[in-house]
Design goal:
Length: 88
């Protein structure tokens, strides 16, 4: 049973790591789109469309990251604890 828990912990931790990287990349693209849109004007059709795409990607990445962190946290809180050995 311990190996299954360890494997699940590693899978969830990896999912958090991957989601965080995707979130950070989406955040950088959103920031870049915001700067471009600000520089070219928010009413420019290409700028508005690019901003909409970047915002959508950012929102999806944040949702994925949030779900991964929640799943990992739930696993850690629900994981059976092994009693600690007391040293004499």
């Amino acid at each position: 049973m311990g190996d299954v828990n360890l494997q699940r912990r590693q899978e969830l931790h990896q999912a958090v790591h991957e989601a965080r990287i995707a979130y950070q990349k989406a955040q950088a693209r959103y920031d870049q789109a915001l700067k471009i849109c600000h520089d070219s004007g928010f009413k420019h059709p290409d700028g508005a469309f690019g901003m909409k795409l970047a915002a959508s990607e950012y929102s999806k990445a944040l949702e994925r990251y949030s779900k991964a962190v929640s799943a990992f946290s739930k696993f850690l809180l629900d994981e059976p604890r092994q009693p600690r050995k007391q040293s004499n």
